[in-house]
Amino acid sequence: MNRKKTIFILAVVLAVAAGFGLYVQEHGIVDTSGGNIGISAGQAILIEGDTGRVLYEKCADQKAYPASTTKIMTALVTLEVLERYDSPIGQKVTVPASAQGVEGSSIYLEAGEKISVEDLLYGLMLVSGNDAAEALAEIIGGGRENFVAMMNDRAEELGCDGTHFTNPSGLFDEDHYTTVRDMAIIAREAMKNDVFRKIVASPSRKAERSMSEYIGFINKNKTIRQYEGGNGIKIGYTQSSGRTLVASATREGRTMIAVVMSAPDWFEDAYRLMDYGFARGK
């Protein structure tokens, strides 16, 4: 086949792909039609966990408000600091006054009580404790402002140019934003961490506290109970951001990570995306 004919055929393939809302990336064709899977999300992306290959996207670089999916980065930074300084995750820490009575979802921390960093992480990721986020920021970062700077630095290292954090919990702020593409990158990085994966895949946790006998956490992410192979990772909601979800599942050695934002049908959207990914084959 001569070169001109090859170029012509390639041009036809690309034109057809564009007509169906597809584009060609290095590892294959990506669906960008945004509607043919039938999802409600304003922004969505599906990636392969192992390779990072994008399988589907809808407004993936559009500014979005992450709500509590922010806590994926909060947990990642915390775990990386612990590893860097060889600090035990089970160490007991004192809850700072700034973590008591925090707005939104809570694990009802009391200033001065003792709790392990591990249990703070479970409270952060399973029941989305904003107070747990504030406690970790103060304890791990030496202050909220410094910890948020660490979050932003880590996002920059990962190439997440469309992301900026102003707090560790995800409470709404006009200047606290991301994109679903960036959040997928952050989630994929977090899921490389063994401790993180164990936490987000846990159905529940019984946490020890000094102010009371214990507190129980039930994982709010229904993916681990409803979806075959579901193994995490985080839900989020504020009135201003709408429903947000990062979901992951592994089947036959393949992992899918779906991110949906501004998603009225958040779990259904994520399940449809992952179904689509698993059905595509390798």
From TrEMBL:
Binding site for substrate: K234
Entry-linked SUPFAM superfamilies: beta-lactamase/transpeptidase-like
Swiss-Prot/TrEMBL keywords: Carboxypeptidase, Cell shape, Cell wall biogenesis/degradation, Hydrolase, Peptidoglycan synthesis, Protease, Signal
Gene Ontology MF annotations: serine-type D-Ala-D-Ala carboxypeptidase activity
Stretches assigned to the Peptidase S11 D-alanyl-D-alanine carboxypeptidase A N-terminal domain: 38-264
Pfam annotation, one family: Peptidase_S11
Gene Ontology biological process: cell wall organization; peptidoglycan biosynthetic process; proteolysis; regulation of cell shape
Enzyme active site: S68 (acyl-ester intermediate), K71 (proton acceptor), S128
Family, per entry: Belongs to the peptidase S11 family.
Protein name as annotated: D-alanyl-D-alanine carboxypeptidase
Record organism: Candidatus Allocopromorpha excrementipullorum
